[in-house]
Amino acid sequence: MKKITVIGAGTGGAIVANSLARNLKKEIQKGQVQVTVFDGAKYHEFQPAYLGVAFRGSNKNAIKRPIRSLLHPDVKLINENCSEINLANEFVVGEKPGQRIDFDYIVIALGCKPDPGQIPGLTEANLDFHTNAQASSIVYDRISKFKGGKIVTGITGLPYKCPPSPNESTFLLHEFFTKKGIRDRVKLSFITPYLRPYPAEPISEVIEPLYKERNIETVLGFNVDSVDPVKKKVFSVEGESVSYDELFLVPPHATPNVIRKAEFSDDEGWVVVDKRDLHVKNYDYAFAIGDNTNLPISKAGVEAHLEGIVVANNISAEIKGISERYLFTGRFQCTMETGFHKATFVVGTYQKPVKKIYPSFANYVKKKIMSKIYWNAELGKCEWLFKLNFGKDYYDVIRDGKTAAPAARAIPN
Amino acid sequence: MTTITVDSRGTACPGPITDLIRAYRKAANGDVIELLATDVGIKSDAKAWCDRTKNELVNITESDGTYKTVIKIVSKRENRDT
Ligand SMILES: Cc1cc2nc3c(=O)[nH]c(=O)nc-3n(C[C@H](O)[C@H](O)[C@H](O)COP(=O)(O)OP(=O)(O)OC[C@H]3O[C@@H](n4cnc5c(N)ncnc54)[C@H](O)[C@@H]3O)c2cc1C
User: Fold this and answer.
1) How many angstroms separate the CA atoms of A106 and A7, rounded?
2) Which end of chain B has less Cβ packing within 10 Å, N or C?
3) B50 in catalytic set
4) What's the whole-model pTM score?
5) Quick one: fold of A116-253?
6) For ligand 1, is residue A143 a contact (CB within 6 Å)?
7) Residue A174: CB within 6 Å of ligand 1?
């Protein structure tokens, strides 16, 4: 029997496990293949909705589903965190010491989390909207009571997930205080280590006028070193400071402990993978997808999804003896709400740089549709739509050693 | 003094500047960051970044489509006064 183990049942892990279960249905029924998922969490939260919880007061309980309900019935769930991943000897260990589970193939999809401890003072001073729905709801409580003063948003360290989210938080704060009628009493200041409000120039050119028009200060090239929660100041590594009354910064992110110091991760704890077929360096039976990889693209759900499709196909093809293989195109896609029912998208691939996309109501609707179909997409019920939407970027195919794009019609973004 | 080599070849903007910012966090005064990039945008970005952060741009050279940017880190404050 071929044993496939998936570690993590988040956006990428669920997609890969469910696709494997569908691709290998017959083999699983015949007892030739087993797909097992490890995840210690009870619920899977839809993370993009944290922004709505934090800045619009949406219901924090409406954005989660039990992990089991998002997995195909043929997938075995071990509702435990993994405490050891041993690629060389092909086994993992759950929470119970000595419980060793062997595998033939493994997919590591553990995501990443805010790690405010990297910046002295940040844990005490800051409220963030990247940790979970509960933490995000505290941001809303705080802004609801805010009567006036200076709010600082922005980026503290790299990398973090969803690159547009710091900009988005700033625009949603502008919307919140404008609707409340006290915008003139609130100073908004956005700090970033980049030299423009958005790292990629074309999108920066699109949003820069919004910062000016909305009277939002930008502090560019500011590399956060530490925060003094008593003096209420953020310091840069060069010794400059920015004062605040409320701080809603995005902390630097890190991978879970089980992989942070692993021999297959880089010196910062990101799993080193091949950027096209996503195998872990030196292990052709091990793969990593989603936020926990060292890939030089943004950390976002769309990437985790498309990588999951590639890996699930390639493992299934190898087991079935099919020669066709998929390659990840590097497609990334992040929404940035700019407030007042408008949004833009940051879209590109390894080959195609980010283009200018102006904020529009149509993009906002597209974002809403994406969030509505998320749970069904995790179950694999919307793959046709993804294929249609991503067109040539969905994946590359190798047939007989030659690369070709999948046959699908592209819808312009 | 340590030389930190960062390989951003094959990544488009903002890949190289992102890698530079990440390397800068780990560097100390006196260290040298050597950034390799194929995106031509790094030439203006590295210069503007050095001007803003007050670090020293030693040089930018080009060979076979790879831009090698050498930056000496000089502007980190040594002690936190928080
Ligand atoms: C505010 C915000 C806005 C966002 N907006 C967007 C957006 O607009 N578009 C977009 O595409 N993406 C967006 N994202 C990013 C997106 O949610 C993530 O990139 C995506 O969830 C990554 O998927 P993943 O599978 O890599 O990790 P995750 O979905 O985070 O899943 C990781 C899983 O691993 C589990 N786990 C952790 N440790 C262990 C362990 N030791 N053993 C077993 N299991 C473990 C966790 O419980 C979790 O279920 C946003 C994120 C945030 C925070």
Assistant:
1) 8
2) N
3) no
4) 0.95
5) FAD/NAD(P)-binding domain (3.50.50)
6) no
7) no
Select from B8, B13, B77 the Cβ nearest to the Cβ of A353: B13
- Listed by start position, the domains of chain B span 3-72
How far does A252 lie from chain B, in Å, by closest CA?
11
Out of A195, A231, A237, whose CB is closest to B76?
A237
Q: What would you report as the CA-atom Rg of chain A, rounded to the nearest whole angstrom?
A: 22
Q: Are A310 and A397 in contact (CB under 8 A)?
A: no
- Write down the CATH number for the domain with range A2-112+255-404: 3.50.50.60
Contacts of A337 (CB under 8 A, 6+ apart): A51, A168, A171, A172, A343, A364, A367
Q: Which long-range contacts (CB under 8 A, 24 or more apart) does A205-213 make?
A: A205/A356, A206/A344, A206/A356, A206/A357, A206/A358, A206/A359, A207/A167, A207/A336, A207/A338, A207/A344, A207/A359, A210/A171, A210/A338, A210/A359
How far does residue A195's CA lie from ligand 1's centre (Å)?
Answer: 28
Secondary structure (3-state) at A77: strand
C-alpha to C-alpha distance for A65 and A14, rounded to whole angstroms: 12
Asked if the domains at A2-112+255-404 and A116-253 fall in one CATH topology, the answer is yes
Check CB contact of A149 with chain B, cutoff 8 Å.
no
H-type alpha helices, A321-360 = none
Q: Is B17 in contact with A235 (Cβ distance < 8 A)?
A: no
- Could you tell me the two tokens for B44? 């203006």
Ligand 1 centroid to Cα of residue A123, in Å, is 21
User: Tell me, what DSSP letter sits at residue A123?
Assistant: H
For A206-250, how does the pLDDT look when each residue is reduced to its tens digit (9 = 90+)? Answer: 999 999 999 999 999 999 999 999 999 999 999 999 999 999 999
Decide if A350 touches B, using CB distance below 8 A.
yes
Residues A266-318: tens digit of each pLDDT: 999 999 999 999 999 999 999 999 999 999 999 999 999 999 999 999 999 99
